[in-house]
Specification:
Pathway: tRNA modification; wybutosine-tRNA(Phe) biosynthesis. This is tRNA wybutosine-synthesizing protein 4. There is one protein chain. The protein is α+β, with helices and mostly antiparallel strands. The protein is built from 12 helices and 34 strands. Strands 3-4-2-1-5-6-8-7 form an 8-stranded mixed beta sheet, sandwiched between helices. The chain has a 5-stranded mixed beta sheet with strand order 9-34-33-32-31, with no helix packed on it. The protein is elongated.
């Protein structure tokens, strides 16, 4: 939430201050904020001394404007910035100062709006910036379109700044629409203008000559200075990358202009990120959901770890989900057992008398034998140090038991390798070296380091760190990547890098005579950067499933990489 509001305010301030800078040679300019609500933009600009020749007009429903006017008059600090408010406002003008006008008008009544603005002194012949932050989308399309066209036709030198939602058709977009509908604030423009391209066409078709648009992931990456990005990323403990990137991919900032010389282009990027259109899908994969169990509270979680502990037995531990009617870090274990072609689900009886398990997410679980698994790392709060190692012991015959009868014992594990395990969003993968089994612990993040690029080899019999030489250029540091075994080595794909940017690289750590060697797996077309996915090797194919990617309107499905040729194909999941 903090970052979401920050990036919205950052985008608006960036564009507004660019307008003021580019028009500073004009004797007079004006800003018209549509649906301004209780926005403090005027007061911040005035306090910074940026309104020397600019008048700010704010418009909202009459009851909102009256409440804001009363608040301004009640607070000495605000009224001092406005100056002489002229006592009680008259008519639609509820508050007025030398460079500030607050009007109570319904934006959908265009003729009334135009009359009120003229009465308040708005000049259609001087440079004017229109601001609409999540406003037009609440209006009927015919009325919001008329407002966009009116602004272009009536004003000879005009700029428009729009911030709104988009992508209504994917799962995040559907929940977003449901959320606003439940607040009786339906998003009316999404069906007609579902993406950046549609919004850009809208403005160009309604009289604006220049128009640029980008989603908020692109704005943060391309229009926010690197030192500012680093400042924001370090402000507070943060580990909600998936929600952050999904939210930013569903909001955009748009700027349009006409009659401006030179053209107004505040969305010129500092750095260039390749723009991605719709992903070309090679086909669709039907997903046969097990309807009986897919709605199970025990399975509705994320940040967990599901592992095949033996053929047809899947154990799920940790993560964040719903438990006892509350959203929380999940303590219960869950098991799926396939018998006679049918999956059966149940909660595991967990034996942990001293609460060794507690809560954890973004950990790993690796099977060591038919009755033993190793838990490495994970976290509770991102502000705390990562968790260490535990063993999970389960009966060898659990595949023959009913799911509710399976028992898992949680055992503490003193180990010299414990410091290496104090991380989360990492990977542990079984590898072979000179006929011996090792767990390759790679990447992740910790309470002190936002991204790690180191690795350890854990010798499975005694779980101690073993030094094994590794040759070749090491991959970029990453977390939330995937890693799976292949030919005795490890395939590492994707992840989130040091700048919180998804990665599209694939590496193979293969056994050589002296140890291991990193090799780059070249893919064509290039793999779309993604993270928080899962990966599986099937034959000579690497399958990447789900996850998060940015700058693409579609949802990640299944990507198939041919490990012999490098051919990379994307499939939608139905």
């Amino acid at each position: 939430f903090h970052r979401g509001y920050y990036i919205r305010a950052r985008a608006v301030d960036h564009c507004v201050q660019d307008f003021l800078l580019k028009t500073q040679s004009h004797p007079r300019t004006q800003i018209l904020s549509l649906g301004a609500g209780f926005d403090s933009l005027y007061f911040r600009l005035k306090d910074l001394g940026l309104l020397r020749h600019t008048v700010v007009y704010e418009v909202d429903f009459p009851n909102v404007a009256r409440q804001k006017a009363a608040l301004i008059k009640r607070m000495e600090e605000l009224s001092a910035l406005v100056g002489d408010t002229g006592g009680e406002g008259s008519g639609v003008i509820t508050c007025s100062g030398e460079d500030y006008r607050l009007l109570g008008v319904d934006l959908s009544e265009l003729s009334e709006l135009e009359r009120a603005l003229k009465e308040a002194g708005l000049d259609t012949d001087i440079p004017t910036l229109f601001i609409a932050e999540v406003v037009l989308t609440y209006m009927d399309n015919s009325r919001s379109d008329a407002l966009v066209r009116w602004a272009a036709e009536r004003f000879s030198r005009a700029c428009f700044l729009l911030y709104e939602q988009m992508h209504p058709g994917d799962p995040f977009g559907r929940v977003m629409q449901q959320h606003f509908s439940q607040m009786s604030s339906a998003l009316r423009s999404l069906a007609r203008y579902p993406d950046c391209e549609a919004q850009q066409r809208r403005f160009l078709e309604k009289g604006w000559t220049e128009c640029s648009v980008m989603d908020m992931n692109e704005f943060f990456t391309c229009c926010t200075p690197e030192d500012e990005q680093q400042r924001v990323q370090a402000l507070e403990p943060f580990d909600e990358y998936e929600e952050w990137h999904l939210k930013c991919s569903h909001y955009f900032v748009l700027t349009a202009s006409k009659g401006m010389e030179p053209p107004w282009t505040p969305l010129l990027p500092n750095v260039t990120v390749p723009r991605r259109g719709p992903v070309r899908m090679a086909g669709s994969v039907p997903a046969a959901a097990c309807a009986v169990h897919s709605g199970s509270a025990g399975l509705r979680r994320y940040g967990h770890r599901s592992v095949l502990i033996k053929p047809n037995v899947i154990l799920t531990t940790g993560g964040f989900g719903e438990e006892d009617g509350q959203h929380c870090r999940v303590r219960s274990f869950h098991v799926l057992i396939k018998r006679a072609g049918c999956w059966r689900a149940g909660c595991v009886k967990k034996e942990s008398p001293d609460q060794r398990w507690g809560e954890r997410l973004y950990h790993t679980v690796s099977c060591l034998s038919n009755s033993l698994a190793l838990v490495v790392g994970g976290r509770t709060s991102p502000s705390r140090a990562g968790l260490g190692m535990l063993q999970l012991r389960f009966p060898e015959s659990c595949g023959a038991l009913d799911p509710d009868d399976v028992t898992v014992e949680v055992v503490s594990l003193p180990s010299s390798a414990e410091p290496a395990a104090l991380r989360w969003r990492h990977s542990t993968t079984e590898v072979m070296f000179k006929g011996e089994k090792y767990l390759f612990l790679y990447g992740g993040r910790s309470a002190k380091e936002p991204v790690l690029g180191d690795w350890y080899f854990l010798h499975t019999p005694e779980l101690s760190c073993t030094a094994i030489p590794v040759e070749g250029p090491a991959p970029e540091s990453r977390h939330s990547h995937s890693a799976c075994g292949w030919k005795g080595g490890v395939l590492v794909a994707g992840g989130l890098g040091a700048a919180e940017q998804p990665l599209g690289s694939v590496f193979f750590l293969r056994e050589v005579e002296r140890g291991f060697q990193w090799q780059t797996v070249e893919t064509h077309p290039p793999l779309i950067p993604r993270y928080s996915h899962t990966a599986h090797v099937h034959g000579e194919k690497l399958l990447l499933v789900g996850g998060v990617w940015c700058h693409s309107p579609s949802v990640p499905g299944v990507t198939v990489v041919d490990l012999m040729t490098g051919l990379c194909l994307d499939y939608a999941v139905d």
